[in-house]
Design brief:
Helix content: under 10%
Strand content: over 45%
Structural class: mainly beta
Amino acid sequence: QVQLVESGGGLVQAGGSLRLSCAASGSILSINAMGWYRQAPGKQRELVATITSGGSADYADSVKGRFTISRDNVKNTIFLQMNSLKPEDTAVYYCNAQVRRGYSSGYNNYWGQGTQVTVSS
């Protein structure tokens, strides 16, 4: 099995900062891309940021310049530094990883359980 465990969510005032972490563990041979997605009430889940194993990052336009994704390949962990938070950033944030469990298998998507981020105005 593969587990993704997120941490770091919480309540913060507009303009504040939070840092999310996501650690992957279990039966893992290699991890390709990892990323953060979010889902606000009544809305579809959307991409926030992704990062490849080589460190190339991509961001949603709504978070560019405010959020930074980073990765520790040794610990199979990614981080999301969120600065200048806005009320519209309020959502459940989910970690995603493309994991290969063995030499005979391809990459499959795995999700964490989500962590709540609430930004008050």
